[in-house]
Amino acid sequence: MSLKRPPEVLGDSLQAAKLRFLSLERKFQREPRFRNKYMKFMKEYLELHHMSESLGDVVLKNKTYYYLPHHGVFQESSTTTKLRVVSDASASTTSGISLNDLQMVGPTVQDDLFAIL
């Protein structure tokens, strides 16, 4: 991943991610079916190594961490995927900078809509 600036400019993201997770936990209490689908998705995501388990309070020196907040969108009417998990890399850290702010913008790969029309 190419970055515009070094990841060390990111501030702490753990508290914001925890708040988002607690909100998700409340939704799990209200909607057990949503919870089951979400847990199944996250288990598969972990097994595919698309994410890794947090080390908790263990901090490795000279490492920068970004906890990626996420939430689920559940659409009963969907014919394909009823649950879509959405990661929020635009969530700011304590420095006011998000992971999205650091990422390079790639070239436009689609033709301009107005040119197509």
Can you tag this structure with a few keywords?
mainly alpha, about 120 residues, about 35% helix, two-stranded antiparallel sheet, 2 strands
Structural notes for this entry:
- This protein is mainly α and 117 residues long.
- It has one domain.
- The protein contains 4 helices and 2 strands; from the N terminus they run ααββαα.
- A two-stranded antiparallel sheet has the order 1-2.
- A hairpin with an 8-residue loop joins strand 1 and strand 2.
- Helix 1 crosses helix 2.
- It is flat, with a radius of gyration of 17 Å.
- The model has no long low-confidence stretch (mean pLDDT 87).
- Let me know the largest β-sheet: 2 strands, antiparallel
Give the oligomer, counting copies of the same chain as homo and different chains as hetero: single chain
Number of domains: 1
- The strand count comes to 2
> Given the structure, what is the number of helices?
4
- The low-confidence runs, each spanning 5 or more residues with pLDDT under 50, are none
Strands of the biggest beta sheet: in what spatial order? 1-2
- Described by the principal axes of the CA atoms, the overall outline is flat
Helix content: 25-40%
Average pLDDT rating: 87
- List the secondary-structure elements in sequence, H or E: HHEEHH
Gyration radius from CA atoms, angstroms: 17 Å
